[in-house]
Amino acid sequence: MPRKLPTTSPASYPARTGKNSWAFAGLIIRCGWSPAALVIIILACVAGCGGPSPQMLTAPVPAHRPAPNQDNQMQQQLMVQASRASLARYKDYQVGAEDLLVIQIYGQDKLNREIRVNGQGEITLPLVGVVKVAGLTTQQIEKRLWALYDADYLVNPQLTVAVKEFRHQRVAVTGAVDKPGSYELIGPRTLLEALSLAGGLSNKPGAQAGDVVNVIRHQNAPDLVRKVQARAVQPFAPQTDTLVIDLRRLVSGRAPELNISVQNGDVIHVHFAGTAYVLGGVRKSGNIAVKENLTVSQAVALAGGIDPILGTNNITILRFDEQGKPRKIDTNLKSIIAGTDDDLPVKDNDVIVVNESAIKKAAYVIRTLIPIPSGGYSLGTF
Prior knowledge:
Elements: H1 16-30, H2 35-50, H3 73-86, E1 100-105, E2 113-116, E3 122-125, E4 129-132, H4 138-152, E5 159-165, E6 168-175, E7 181-186, H5 191-197, E8 209-218, H6 224-227, E9 232-234, E10 240-246, H7 247-252, E11 267-272, E12 274-280, E13 286-290, H8 296-302, E14 311-320, E15 326-332, H9 333-338, E16 351-356, H10 358-369
Parallel strand pairs: 6-11, 12-16
Antiparallel strand pairs: 1-2, 1-5, 3-4, 6-7, 8-10, 8-11, 9-10, 12-13, 14-15, 14-16
């Protein structure tokens, strides 16, 4: 292994500017200049001794370990940062077999490579040999290569790693999407992009999307799953992890950390919404999709609101336990609006009955069955 050599401090080399300045001062004294001028010259000499020399010598560096060009260092750093910025969209992408990498080490053209990751997830590079890169992001590969080259060969190498060609990835999208199925992706794709490829969320009656999407991933994948802020991570099947993501927050864009990069072999499952039923004195009786935070007043509104002819503000909720036994919960829409009753959350399989007024119902029957004279409404002798 080549031996690192210490770098001699530039301060150990003489400064030529100060010596020349003192010689010039001696010449001024012999010429009979005034004391004030002499003081100015002496101060200039002292300044020349203390300042850095433009002809400063540098210590030798071994040929196998070239030092970076200091004149171009800022330009190199700018190029590195610009390259990383252009790849910001791909920062979470994990390199895998068949990806084609571009590796550039600035100032070391002979070490630059375009190299494809082999089936074992490895690449072979000059000087450092075989390097495992599968499962790492490009930034992680940069750090690994920097450590390998800096250990014995290069001084603080400035390098970048980019993916020139991406392998194909296959993911499955199931559940409440418009076009469930298996999809082949090229390059890094996010969760929202995968859902979009599947036609987006289903809005079909009885098959509407709920509020949860699962990403089911093999446990040997990187730890990205465990770093995402979500409700919980639960086991789904042997050797897999399931990431449970709030679909509403994901779609709203308020939680960009939930829009993770999908990986080869991921199974993306969108839960179906639950179903509740709104009956009685409403404009449109029927079933509605139960989504998170749906309340009784919202359910009534989704059913068209209270029927002004038949409906009342009194509401009865039939809620079934695990054994199928119903429990009655009474509430009042007017009290909910006034804030004196809680606006209860709706649960899957709830039956919400808006009570009908017997008097209103009787009047409705009468108006329907008995013709009304053109001059106005009359019950006659009924």
